[in-house]
Design goal:
Largest sheet: 9 strands, mixed
Distance between the termini: 63 Å
Number of domains: 4
Oligomer: single chain
Strand content: 15-25%
Length: 714
């Protein structure tokens, strides 16, 4: 009974938590949800070809045969005339003619007024064509105000029903129309805006926009309205926003802002494409365009009207309109009604409580195979709901609900059966460190704790200026609380990168890799942990500053070399650790971070290990100096690992490398000039240090130059 109540309480908490995530997490979190839905589109594949819409394509062939874009307006007029004479249904222009045709011959009269003969006006020719052909023009709404004072004439009335006065519709500030002579000749026109969703992928497009408190239709919507021979459009909704757009026999579901979710038919070229040059030369079949929706646009990459959709990364923008028209004609919408939020929440609760009960009643060996089967069935159901019912439900939260419930159920069962093992761990915990304990339990007979030599990457980190921080905090309890905030995520990062925490020395952390468990590319893991710690410190500092009004800065040193690893200590109290000269060198590397005021320093051995494993490209590393540390007679080259916290530009990186090369070659004058230049533009301790090193040699030419920094203290 108690176990059942515990599981019910856990299910309740989990359901509430997932509901909170669903309702209050920023929408950027759900970009993954859209990507999952994109994957379902790819699984569905392309739908059967449609003959409702034909695209007249200003393709590369057209540009080659007719000439570069923009074409003169008489050519456009000829193209439209040929379509009209071939009984094209409705022609939509996915373009705007915002300026006069500069190639029009009549413009010569302004330059040469003595010309007596009448010269053709290409804009007027196109305007006459607009007036006589079934053309719907295009125009653009912009987010910024424009000087345009005119508005497009739409021969329709938009009636708002049930909508509140709140700004449910997207409003735009500016507009770019065709030139007056062309705009006035058009029977009607519609805007073309292709909205990019998360990740730059097009999944929806607005059907209506508000401009100067008037509703205007998109190009696709206006073509369909004219086709319906209906001049009254109803925009229906409630306090939540728009729900439907209705005219004639059409009832179109939308998002609350008037967005239309597009049920894309497939990748590019799903609809019939005719080359614009063939239309101009009248080299096409009348049956290809007769009584069709015609869209004039481009697929030429050079004209930059390509979009990214679930199926295709180079999808012509004009085919977005084609998909919208075909969706509405066929009525196979996909939509997310207001009630979908309720469905999503119900699914979360049913999954959590149902699965918790089901998995609890099953034997442990059955849980995983049954879970895989049920998960597959859930995905099939969501797929069916999307494409057969046209209903968009959230995919991410059901997946989270499913797997979190499974994991929690397994965890509960594991907790029940692990008391004996926990007792054994507590006993072993008195002898060895926690990080080694689990491995010893799993590999008790392999002699892993016996002392042996192993190559390891050793890690030391320390908080800079810790003494003054301690004095500022005053209270020992405050100091401990602050250190706990800092140490916990730092420890987690090391463990996640397969490292072993050796010990905490006040504010310092010692860790190592490749012992007692072998870790492939251990130097790479160690450097990755260091980079993550420096970048994580920025987040930690925000937390610490709110309580203690201080910010921490750390120095991290790493070195790779052979150490002795094993179980060491006294009788009755021992621990698995590492010792050796290379441990001392790693500690010295950490101390050198204060000399140069850098975050991460690695030795040449660590750098070579990363380079040989071909992982150096994962990090931004630059040489810093050659140093002879105390206790060692041989100098070692040291390198800085640069992080996003203190980035180094490409120019600074190159100049520093050149300056250091001059310094190593004893070209002190050139080195001094470059380090001075660097310190002027990128002032820091590192460049000031080298300027100071160069100065004595510039002042006294008799001094024997040495590029090696000899450290006399730790």
């Amino acid at each position: 009974m108690r176990n059942a109540l515990v599981k019910a309480a856990i299910a309740l908490v989990l359901s509430l938590f997932l509901t909170w995530i669903y309702l209050f997490t920023p929408q950027s979190f759900f970009s993954l949800d859209n990507k999952l839905r994109d994957l379902m589109f790819n699984i569905r594949g392309e739908l059967p070809k449609s003959d409702n819409v034909v695209i007249i394509d200003i393709d590369n062939k057209s540009l080659k045969e007719v000439g570069q874009w923009p074409w003169s307006r008489d050519v456009i007029a000829k193209l439209l005339t040929n379509l009209s004479e071939s009984k094209a249904g409705i022609i939509g222009l996915d373009m705007v003619f915002a300026e006069e045709d500069r190639s029009s011959p009549h413009r010569l009269k302004k330059k040469y007024p003595n010309i007596s003969q009448s010269l053709p006006n290409y804009d007027k020719i196109l305007a006459n064509t607009f007036a006589s052909a079934p053309v719907v023009g295009g125009y653009i709404f912009t987010g910024e105000e424009t000087k345009e004072t005119n508005t497009p004439l739409i021969p329709a009335v938009f009636i708002e029903k049930g909508l509140h006065k709140s700004t449910y519709l997207k409003e735009t500030k500016g507009i770019i129309l065709n030139t007056p002579i062309l705009q006035e000749a058009l029977y009607s026109s519609g805007f073309f805006v292709t909205k990019k969703n998360e990740g730059g992928v097009v999944r929806s497009a607005p059907l209506i926009y508000k401009y100067q408190d008037v509703i205007y239709p998109s190009l696709a919507l206006e073509m369909l309205r004219i086709y319906s021979a209906n001049n009254k459009v109803e925009v229906i909704g409630d306090e939540n926003g728009v729900e439907l757009i209705k005219f004639g026999d059409f009832s179109i579901p939308t998002e609350s802002s008037g967005e239309f979710i597009i049920n894309f038919r497939g990748p590019k070229k799903h609809f019939k494409y005719l080359s614009a040059s063939d239309i101009v030369s009248n080299n096409f079949k009348q049956s290809d365009v007769e009584n069709k929706f015609i869209l004039l646009g481009t697929s030429a990459p050079g004209l930059k009207d390509l979009r990214y959709i679930a199926y295709d990364s180079t999808f012509p923008g004009v085919e977005v309109h084609a998909n919208i028209i075909d969706n509405i004609l066929e009525g196979d919408f996909i939509q997310r009604p207001f009630v979908a939020n309720l469905y999503d929440i119900i699914i979360i609760w049913v999954l959590v409580f149902g699965l918790m009960l089901l998995f609890s009643l099953m034997t442990s060996w059955l849980v995983l195979p049954v879970a895989i089967i049920l998960f597959s069935l859930m995905l099939v159901a969501l797929y069916f709901t999307l494409f057969s019912q046209g209903l968009i439900l959230t995919l991410l939260t059901p997946i989270l609900a499913f797997w979190s419930t499974l994991i929690l159920t397994i965890a509960i069962e594991y907790f029940k059966t692990s008391k004996q093992k926990d007792q054994a761990k507590r006993i072993l915990g008195n002898k060895v460190s926690t990080s080694v304990m689990q491995h010893l339990l799993d590999n008790a007979n392999e002699g892993l704790i016996e002392p042996k030599e192993v190559e390891s990457t050793i890690f030391f980190s320390d908080i800079k200026g810790f003494t003054s921080i301690s004095e500022k905090l005053g209270s020992p309890q405050k100091l401990i609380d602050m250190l706990n905030i800092y140490m916990t995520p730092m420890t987690d990062i090391i463990i996640q990168e397969q490292g072993t925490i050796d010990k905490f020395i006040g504010d310092a952390i010692m860790a190592y890799w490749n012992a007692p468990v072998a870790v492939e590319h251990h130097a790479t893991h160690a450097v990755s942990a260091a980079v993550q710690q420096v970048e994580q410190l920025k987040v930690i500092n925000e937390i610490i500053y709110k309580t203690y009004q201080l910010r921490l800065q750390i120095g991290i040193g790493l070195h790779t070399g052979v150490v002795t690893a094993g179980d060491m200590g006294s009788v009755g109290r021992s621990d698995y650790t590492i010792i050796g000269d290379n441990v001392n060198l790693a500690s010295r590397m950490e101390g050198l971070t204060r000399v140069y005021d850098v975050d991460i320093l690695i030795s040449e051995a660590t750098y070579k290990d990363i380079k040989e494993s071909q992982h150096a490209k994962n990090f931004h590393i630059r040489a810093i100096d050659s140093v002879e540390v105390k206790g060692r007679s041989q100098a070692t080259n040291i390198y800085e690992v640069i992080t996003a916290v203190r980035p180094v530009s490409k120019e600074e990186f190159t100049l520093h490398a050149q300056a250091l090369q001059y310094f190593k070659e004893a070209n002190v004058v050139q080195a001094y000039e470059l380090f001075t230049k660097l310190n002027t533009h990128y002032p820091c301790t590192l460049y000031a240090h080298f300027i100071e090193r160069c100065t004595p040699y510039l002042e006294d030419a008799t001094l024997t130059f040495s590029p090696i920094l000899k450290m006399t203290s730790k």
